[in-house]
Amino acid sequence: MPLLLIEDLHVEVEGKPILKGVNLKIEKGEIHALMGPNGSGKSTLSYTLLGHPKYTVTRGRILYNGEDITASKTHERARRGMFLSFQYPTAIPGVSVANFLRTSLKSVKGDESVVKTFRKQLREKMALLEMDEKFATRYVNDGFSGGEKKRLETLQMAMLEPQLAVLDETDSGLDIDALRIVSGGINRLASPERGILLITHYQRILDYVKAQFIHVLIDGQIAHSGGSELAKDLEKKGYDWLQKHPEPAGAA
């Protein structure tokens, strides 16, 4: 049974069709990268997977561990073990990282007992991600650099321990050093029990995070799928080149 199965997914935003028949399967332990030009529907897919009410499914379905969650609320999906890392994380002045993470953990796990071990777990996860403990006292994304915002997203993933992590353009706005640090955190959190969908414009993050499968979303559909060579071909030749080829570039 796949961890995630998307079947013929059609999605509209304010009456405008964006996704036009997406099909995708992710098994536990797999890392999939989703690439595509601006406006192809990558972020729409990520928000739809987590149940954002702005995105209306008009056809198709989403199965998670064999269960149809197409109509499930966002908090229900989170409690089942789904996670979304935002491309543009929001600042929350006055709320410390530690308090934010404690509240999130309690809400998702639905168990007061997690609060008792919270401090210990937070120290362990921050050490795993090579983060200074003082980071936990800062206000959420308030005055954070792009790299710090994405490291906090990775820390949230570490604390919540989702079974499926959807990472929406985690590499956006990162310099080389920050990209290396964030990618290292993602690699440390990969496991045989976790599936990862990494959404990106560029091949560069795939030099650090080794995705077994590359998919290209064009005009609301997955037009091509392949291995790591597909991402390298796209980096060299661009999406226009790919659209002229009837067979997946980089395929064996």
What are the SSEs and their pairings?
Blueprint: E1 4-13, E2 16-26, E3 31-35, H1 42-49, E4 55-64, E5 67-68, H2 74-79, E6 82-85, E7 92-96, H3 97-109, H4 113-116, H5 118-128, E8 139-140, H6 146-160, E9 164-168, H7 176-189, E10 195-199, E11 213-218, E12 221-226, H8 228-243
Parallel strand pairs: 3-10, 3-11, 6-9, 9-10
Antiparallel strand pairs: 1-2, 1-4, 4-5, 7-8, 11-12
Report on this model:
The structure is a single chain. This protein has about 250 residues and is an alpha/beta fold. About 35% of the residues lie in helices and about 30% in strands. The protein has a domain at about 5-90 and about 165-245: Rossmann fold. It is built from eight helices and twelve strands. Mean pLDDT is about 90; it is low at about 250. The protein is globular and about 55 Å long. The strands form three sheets. Strands 6-9-10-3-11-12 form a six-stranded mixed β-sheet, sandwiched between helices.
Order of helices and strands: EEEHEEHEEHHHEHEHEEEH
Separation of the first and last Cα atoms: 26 Å
CATH class of the domain at 4-88 and 163-243: Alpha Beta
Structural shape: globular
Overall mean confidence score, pLDDT: 91
User: Which homologous superfamily in CATH is the superfamily of the domain at 4-88 and 163-243?
Assistant: P-loop containing nucleotide triphosphate hydrolases
Q: Which architecture of the domain at 4-88 and 163-243 would the CATH scheme give at its second level? A: 3-Layer(aba) Sandwich
